[in-house]
Structure formats: C-alpha cells, structure tokens
Amino acid sequence: MALQLMKLLVTASTTTNVVPSPAKFFYVTTAETAAGSTLSIDAASFFQDDGSAVTALPALTSNNSYFNVYINGILQQQGNSTYTPGATAVGSLAFAVPAGGSTILQNTSVVLQVVNYAPASTTTVAS
Fold it and tell me: Which InterPro entries does the protein's record reference (predicted)?
C-alpha cells in the first residue's frame, strides 16, 4: 500500500446574536438656552418612559454603543453633545447650542437615547 497524507478534518460554525439594550430619557427645558450657550441636564432631571425619575444614566459599552439627542423631535448632530454616564451630580448631558443658531425655547422636549449592544456568540466544532 502506498503512503498517504493523513489530515484532520474539522468544521466549525459560529452564530452571533446582536442584542440591543435601548434606553430613553426625557426632559423638558425650564428656561431658554441662547445660541452660543450650553444646555446642561443632570441625570436626576430626566424622567423615564413610565414618568419615574432617573437615578443614573447608563455607561456606554466601549466600541459597542451610541447615544442620540433629539431636541423638539429633531435628531441633533453628535458633535454638539457631551454625554457623561453616572448618578445625580455626575451623570449628565451637555448640549452646546451653536453660535449663530436658534435659541432652545422654554418647555422644549429633549430626548436622550442610549443604546448598548450585548453580542453573544456560540461556536460549534465538529471533527
């Protein structure tokens, strides 16, 4: 019998589920914020979908999350916002109103949307 090349046959398949974890926080402005100024909102000033107070803003998962800011229902450019996770006096949203832009009026709605992803993968190996 002739010599043969013996090799290992292995197959593998990986399934990855991307699981978003969205959170929405709401605020209604209590005063005008003029162009060139910054609207700062503490974590405790936000309320949740059910109307209850927010105790802390969630951390953003590194390279696997994002946040959006809507003012009066309009999605805002990311560069105007600074998001800081944490509890009262630490967690906040700061929105820099561009100079030369419009004033944010009193009683304007602000919605903060935070989305973290928790991907989970399973690999099946057969030999």
Answer: DUF4183 (IPR025237)
